[in-house]
Every structure is written in C-alpha cells, then in structure tokens.
Amino acid sequence: MTLIENYLVVFSLILVLFPQICWLYSFQHEWDPIHNKYSQFSNAERLQMVDASKKMFQFGYDNYLKYAFPEDELDPIHCRGRGPDYDNPDNININDVLGDYALTLVESLDTLAVMGNSSEFKKAVKLVIEYVSFNNNNTVQVFEATIRVIGALLSAHLIIIDPRQPLGDMSIPGYENELLQLAHDLASRLLPAFSNTATGIPYPRVSLSKGVPLNCINETCTSGAGTLVLEFGVLSRLLNDPVYDAVSRRAVASLWSLRSNVTGLLGNVINIQTGEWVGPMSGLGAGIDSFFEYLLKAFIMFGEKKDLEMFNESYETIKFHLRRGRPKCNYGAGNVPLYVNVNMKTGETVNTWIDALQAAWSAVQHIKISYISEQVLNGDMEEAICSHALYYAIWRRYNALPERYNWQLRAPDVRFYPLRPELIESTYFLYRATKNPFYLHVGRDILESINAHTKERCGYCTIHDVHTKELEDRMESFFLSETCKYLYLLFDTDNPVNKEFSRYIFTTEGHLFPLDMKFHKKPWVEEEGCTHKGQARSQSLLLKQARKELEGPKSTNYNEPVITDARTNFSNCDTIDQERRYNLPILSRYLAQLEVAVGLRGDSS
Ligand SMILES: *[C@@H]1O[C@H](CO)[C@@H](O)[C@H](O)[C@H]1NC(C)=O
Ligand SMILES: *[C@@H]1O[C@H](CO)[C@@H](O)[C@H](O)[C@H]1NC(C)=O
Ligand SMILES: *[C@@H]1O[C@H](CO)[C@@H](O)[C@H](O)[C@H]1NC(C)=O
Ligand SMILES: *[C@@H]1O[C@H](CO)[C@@H](O)[C@H](O)[C@H]1NC(C)=O
Ligand SMILES: *[C@@H]1O[C@H](CO)[C@@H](O)[C@H](O)[C@H]1NC(C)=O
Ligand SMILES: *[C@@H]1O[C@H](CO)[C@@H](O)[C@H](O)[C@H]1NC(C)=O
C-alpha cells in the first residue's frame, strides 16, 4: 500500500466510524447542562433525603398528635385541631372528608409501618382502637370515607396479621381484629348509599347514623362511585360477607354499561337514577381518574379477568381519544404529548386545562407495565415518562402543582395546591421502573419546594395560590398518608416494600395492601340463592339485588364490543433506544421543549 492508499483506508475508516463516534459522544453529553444536572445522585445525598422525608412526616405527625388529636386534621398555622364544619353543613370541602374519626391518625398508620417505626405504629393502633368511633351523624362522602378510612384500617389490619412481618415487628399482642371491625362498622354505615338507586350506582353521601340524607343529590362523579372495589372487595373477603364486593362491583358494571357506544368513553358526573351523564366531560383528572386505576388494581388484587378486559379497553380508548401531541414521547417532531379533556360522546376537546390529579396516570401506566405487559421497556413506559415530565416542568415553574393548569394560556386556571401526592407517586413508580437518577432529582426538588414554601409553625400547609405562595391553614390527611410515604419510599431504596415491590399494591389513597393469592378466591359460595353468613336483612336484600343486576341479561356483557368508531393502528410498542436507557429518561431536547411549553424559559428557536 502506498502512503496515499494508507491515508485513504484510515480516512474511510473514520468515515465509517464517524456515526458511531458521534453516537458514543452523545452518550457522554458533557456539554449538555440538562444532562449534567440529572445524571448522578450520590448515595450520601440519597440518605440525606431519606432523613429529610422522615423528618417531614414526623413534624406533621408529632404536631398532629400534640395539637389536634383526636380531631380529624391539624391546622398547621394556628396549631389546633379541625373537625367537621357543624356550623355550615353545606361546606362539603370539609364535611365530605372529616367525620370526627381522628382521620389523620388513621391515615398515618401504614406510613409509620413503612418507615419501620414499630413502637409508634403500636401506640397509634391502640389510640385508634380506643378513640375512633363512627357512631355519629356526620354526613360524609362514601368515596372519601372508603379510600381514606376503610383503606387505612384494612391496610394496618393486614400489616398486623401478616405472619411474615416484613416491615419489622408490627404485631399487636392481644389484637382481636379491632381495626377490621372498625372498617366493617364504617362500611355497613355506608351501605344505605347503594339502596334505592335505580342504576346501582351509589349516592355520593351518607349520614353515618341515618343513612342517605333526605333530598340527597342524585348525582355522583364517576370516580366516587367506581373506586370502591379494592377496599370493599378486601373487606368482603376478610369478613366472608359478599355484600360489599357485590355492591361495589355492581356500581362499576353499571358505569361501564353506560359508557358511550360511539367513543367508549365515560363522563365525569352521572345521575344515579336515570343513568344520564350530567357531566359529559371525559378525561384523566378529577372525577374520573381513579375509576381506571381501580379496574387495573382490582384485577391485580383479585385476578378477575373481566376487570383487566375493562381496563384494556379503557386504556386503548384513552390513548385514542384523549391523547394529543407527537405520536412518540422520545422521537420525532411535534408538540408535547398531552392527555386532554374531551366530550365523551364525540371525543372533541372541551377545554384547555389539565388537572393535578391526572399526574397519577404515569403511575397507572407503570403498574400496567409491571403486572400486565411482559416487556418493561416498551411504549407504555415512554408514555409514562412523558406524562410525568410535563407535570414536573409545571412543578418547577411554580414550585408546586396548581390544581388546574391551562396549557394554552400557560398559566394556572385554579391556583391552589393542597400538598397532593400524585406527582411524587408517579416519580416513585418511574424510579422503581428505571432506577434513573433523574427521578431522585425530581423527588428532591419536590421535597425542597414543600419545605421551602409550605412549612409553618406546626405542620405543612395547603398553598392557596401557587403564584403568591399564600397559604391556607389546612393540612389534608393525605399529606402524611401519601405524599410523605411516597417520598420516603422513593429515597429509601432498601426498604422492605421496595425489596418486595411486586408483593404489594397501593390503594388510590396510598395505603399498602399486600397481594395475596387468597384474595383471588372468594370465600363465599357463588350460586344464586346461596345462604351466606350475611349481617343484616337489608344487606342480604341488597346483595340479591346486586347479584341479579350483575347476572341479568341487561347488565354488562364484558365481552361484547360496543364501540363503533374506527381505530387506527396507533402503535406504542417500539422499544426504547439505548441512548435513552443510559441517559436521561427523556431526551434533553424534549425536556427543553417542555420548559418552553410551560413558560419556564423563553423560546430560543
Ligand atoms: C417513631 O415515631 C415517633 C413519633 O414520631 C418518633 O418520636 C420516634 O423517633 C420514631 N422512631 C423511629 C425509630 O423512627
Ligand atoms: C345529630 O347532629 C345534630 C347536629 O347536627 C345534633 O344536635 C344531634 O344531637 C345529633 N344526633 C345524634 C344521634 O348524634
Ligand atoms: C332523586 O331521585 C328520586 C327518585 O327518582 C326522586 O324521588 C328524588 O326527588 C330525587 N332527589 C332530588 C334531590 O332530586
Ligand atoms: C347508541 O345508543 C343510543 C342510545 O343510548 C342509540 O340511540 C344509538 O342508536 C346507539 N348508536 C349506535 C351506533 O349503536
Ligand atoms: C390486556 O392487554 C395486555 C397487553 O397490554 C394483554 O397481554 C392481555 O392479554 C390483555 N388481557 C385481556 C383480558 O384482554
Ligand atoms: C398502520 O399505520 C400505518 C401508518 O402509521 C399505515 O401505513 C398502515 O396502513 C396502517 N395499517 C392498518 C392496518 O391500518
């Protein structure tokens, strides 16, 4: 070879290798500030965050016990307790949730267990047994009482009776199922909501001692009626009393049968007597979010195929009708992917806002991936990463998540932030799935904003206005139950719950339920006319009614396709390319695009 030829060989080698070299270089991203910011999170920093999230919980919890117990909530500015608003029965913002049952303590039980605080867990369980009673005539929302109180009581009960005690010694000497009995007592007081409804969809509210109030509104939101199956199903199985399972399933079946025969979508508010959709808006936010979540979680918990079929169909419908923006999260050009609110009958976009509760959708997507799909790194993962990244960008803009954010105006429509957990919940699930340090940074950003802007004399406050950071004197019980729990679990990577992640499921209120094959079996006999060890006569009547409607020919046929619109072959199954796996979960150019989209930075292009 001549010298020239040698040069030519080397030169052509460089030409061949050049794309590879570029590709390797792009792995380093040394010049990319976004990549540099997120690429590492040291163990020492992580341990600091474990400590900080524990301190956050303890500050709220200790002060609740000191200043508020046995009332329901702590007022973190005035350092006093808060119970139902007896002066103004119409104040549903308070009265739907607070029932004079030491709500914050009840909701904190399983967080104490997750944090391994055995002595405090035992003390708190004893306080609940001693103080909590449902024998009052407060009118509460069926949904809130179920997910907050029944869910928390069942979770703590299951933790106490678990023979393996994986979270540390959480056993209670002399325990006689008192928490289960409390859950049973409350659930039986909620049952009247399921009577005298033409559709089987429950009334939204009951008085704990007098049943459904006279002149109770005949309208309920979809998630209020359709997010009871996990708690009621577990309760039924533990009690060997099918009534709770039956009434909650009847509500879901009825809602499902009323979905649009054009789009397959459900609205967000329905008349429980006529089955008419009073609120025809469909979306993934308030009023409907947890309906889909519970179809999936019910399948995981109880293994009933029809739940998965309903979820699968919903999932496709949601992607088809609600999703906007470029087809792939991490590929190609176009707007930021977004799930919008649409008219359930036409699929047309009805407004330009997204709400804070919707931030939990990434967690649902992740759960779908972990339990249902074989492949972890598939298109659903991409979707989850992208939905989450949008909410994170909004968080960084306001150091909080406004209740409603208008993506067209790039401004909040509703400005409060009540310390909701949904973004941190999704952050936690995505970290479990990717182990990407990006999510530890997100968690730290969230924790630091909460400490910087909401911490007051004796607790953490609702932000009244994300612009001004004006506060409200209220700390909702889900702050200790969910927000602190998910933050702690995000950073405490060696936690028993993380080591056995697939053995647990979190309720929509963040309460931990162990998965157990025994819940796949129904302890009661299934045949029509069976004699069950039911409680009261009214219950067994209710049960018969529920069963009839579930089995009757007019009720839902889960296998029958009712949707008549044409589906595209919207594909979501592409695998994630290597660059993504080892670098940012979402390409930095798309993160930058999100920052522009929410007004965090100007548009430089
Ligand atoms: C358990 O919780 C109590 C109350 O917050 C706290 O004082 C104590 O330090 C905690 N113990 C551990 C080991 O975290
Ligand atoms: C029901 O509540 C009212 C106030 O709203 C109270 O006066 C009454 O004593 C309560 N009745 C029972 C049985 O608790
Ligand atoms: C609710 O529906 C029932 C039965 O159709 C009716 O008797 C009652 O008046 C309705 N209540 C209200 C508040 O509209
Ligand atoms: C959808 O249901 C409505 C009644 O709810 C009926 O009038 C209409 O014909 C149905 N459309 C199709 C395409 O089946
Ligand atoms: C639901 O969808 C998953 C894939 O996402 C599939 O593996 C499963 O077989 C489907 N199950 C049912 C019951 O439709
Ligand atoms: C699937 O989509 C591609 C374009 O994305 C299109 O070319 C193809 O014809 C579609 N296939 C079917 C069966 O609709």
Characterise this structure.
It is a single chain. The model is unreliable at 18-25, 528-537, 553-561 and 566-578 (pLDDT under 50). With 605 residues, the chain is mainly alpha-helical. It has helices at 3-28, 33-38, 43-68, 92-95, 103-114, 118-131, 142-161, 178-190, 222-226, 229-239, 243-257, 289-302, 305-322, 361-371, 379-398, 422-434, 438-454, 478-491, 496-499, 537-551, 578-582, 588-597, and strands at 73-75, 80-82, 139-141, 205-207, 219-221, 269-271, 277-279, 281-282, 323-324, 338-339, 342-343, 353-355, 404-406, 411-414, 462-465, 470-472, 504-506, 512-514. The chain binds 2-acetamido-2-deoxy-beta-D-glucopyranose (NAG) (6 copies). One 2-acetamido-2-deoxy-beta-D-glucopyranose binds next to helix 3.
Q: What fraction of the residues are assigned to beta strands by DSSP?
A: 5-15%
Poorly predicted runs of 5 or more residues: 18-25, 528-537, 553-561, 566-578
Helical residue percent band: 40-55%
Average pLDDT across residues? 88
Please give the count of helices.
22
Report Rg. Answer: 25 Å
Described by strand count, sense and barrel closure, the largest sheet is: 3 strands, antiparallel
Biggest sheet, spatial arrangement of strands: 5-6-7
Q: What bound compounds does this protein have? A: 2-acetamido-2-deoxy-beta-D-glucopyranose
Q: Could you give the distance between the termini?
A: 49 Å
Count of beta strands: 18
Inertia-based shape:
globular
